[in-house]
Amino acid sequence: MKPSRSFRLMLAPVAAAFLISPAAGNAHEGHKKDMSEAEMAQMEMQDKSAAHHGNANAMHDAMKKGELDGTAMPTVAPQTAEQALAARIAENRVTSTSDFLGRLHPVAAHFPIALLLLAALAELMLAVRPSLGLETTVRFLVGGGAIGAFVAAVFGWFAGGWRLEDRSETLGLHRWNGTAIAGVALIAAWLAFRARNRTLLRVLLAALAAALVLQGYHGGEMVFGPNHLGLE
């Protein structure tokens, strides 16, 4: 039996969402160490300060060695692009199985986001026009999204560390909001396949859509830093 036209139309944006979704970076090292936002900002400033002092010390050493005559710059060999890339690759090597599983979280997170948001959209279209017959489409999207959300949540716990409290407010919100999304998505999937009354399913899908937007914002705060949208 050929899939309905409406089903094929719903699959198109799913594929597009997967193709255009960017892969977020790995969790900030400070989050892994259970640092607060203030401590991470302080660490970043200290790193910049250390780099500045390192350059100043190199200049001072060059002057002492007679490499600076008052007009010429010291002949300090800069690091090549290839050397910088090799150093970054070495720095990012996997250190353990849990470290590797945590690194899969950004990749896994995109699938449930796309599927569950499209499930909410499909259910909205079904509520407006029941004749579209999107019940099977909703089941497919919610079921796939629920499985993906569960997997992404597990990987997220590996990425953020297995603890119940976080000193970072952003990480704590991201952790528990993501865990709640996985749980609610599983309930929504059960309702999509079992329930005849779709009211509760629609409420849960609307809540999931809002939670996913919030989750994406918190993820951006973790990867790019506080006020990553520049609105404050």
TrEMBL record:
Q: Which residues cross the membrane?
A: 107-128, 140-162, 174-193, 200-218
The UniProt record lists the keyword Transmembrane helix: yes
Q: Which UniProt keywords apply?
A: Membrane, Signal, Transmembrane, Transmembrane helix
A Pfam match = DUF2231
Q: Where is the signal peptide?
A: 1-26
* InterPro entries registered for this protein in UniProt: DUF2231_TM
Q: Where is the DUF2231 domain?
A: 104-224
Whether Ligase counts among this entry's keywords is no
Q: What is this protein called?
A: Putative vegetatible incompatibility protein HET-E-1
Annotated source species: Altererythrobacter epoxidivorans
